[in-house]
Amino acid sequence: MQGKIPAVNEVRSLSSTKARLHTLAGQLSPGRAQAFLVALLNHRIGNVAAARLFIRRFPEFCPEGGFPLAVREDIENAWRQPTAFDRDAALLEPIASALHFYGIAVDRQEAGAEAWAYLAAVIWYATKISDRMRVCANPDCRARYFVASKRIQKYCSKACAAPAQRALKRTWWKEHGPKWRAKWRAEHKPKPKVKRTARKGQRKRKEGK
Ligand SMILES: [Zn+2]
Question: Are 79 and 116 in a shared domain?
Fold first, then answer.
């Protein structure tokens, strides 16, 4: 991935920081942006081995090869806001911060400058999916942050939805079970005469065999 990214000294050959930003943002695919956001938020802080793997998987988003911890906190805070508007509003600050650090890094000709541009681009991308940012409603979920494919979606997967569905069924049966069973029995009451004759007939056929 890093091979694709132009070297920092090429920044000087572009007319402005803005043009450079545009080029970098254009290289970021929605799939990669989403994968990064979800992996970043579901990363367990303190797990050094996982952090190393993360950096290897997403090197273009890691300024100076470090885990983007501060950015994670900002995005997590935004993701947990109650409405899409609140989430967008909360994302504006980290976008501005990433752009600010990008500007400084470019001025200092730091090697990790472009990572800040990628971070700004990926947080800007997050505003495009802010209406579908979810935290899985299953408290036992190991990767709770996800992007819903439908707006009503509450769980990240069928596996996470299953316990709640089972509990819902149990509650329903407790409340409505007896009534439902009585109704079912009434509707399925056997027609005694017809059944008895049929049974007799069957018995006769069996005896005849
Ligand atoms: Zn889940």
Answer: yes
Same domain for 85 and 112: yes
Q: Please give, one letter per residue, the 3-state secondary structure of the chain.
A: CHHHCCCHHHHHHCCCHHHHHHHHHHCCCHHHHHHHHHHHHHCCCCCHHHHHHHHHHCHHHCHHHCCCHHHHHHHHHHHCCCCHHHHHHHHHHHHHHHHHHHHHHHHCCCCCHHHHHHHHHHHHHHHHCHHHEEECCCCCCCCCEEECCCCCCCCCCHHHHHHHHHHHHHHHHHHHHHHHHHHHHHHCCCCHHHHHHHHHHHHHHHHHC
- Write out pLDDT tens, residues 49-101: 999 999 999 999 998 889 999 999 999 999 999 999 999 999 999 999 999 99
Residues 202, 121, single domain; the answer is no
Is the same domain home to 14 and 57?
yes
Q: Ligand 1 center to residue 102 CA distance, Å?
A: 35
Residues spanned by the domain of 151: 2-156
- Ligand 1 centroid–CA 144 distance in Å is 5
Do 151 and 168 have their domain in common? no
Q: Which protein residues have a CB closer than 5 Å to ligand 1 (ion)? A: 136, 138, 141, 156, 160
CA 134 to ligand 1 center in whole angstroms? 10
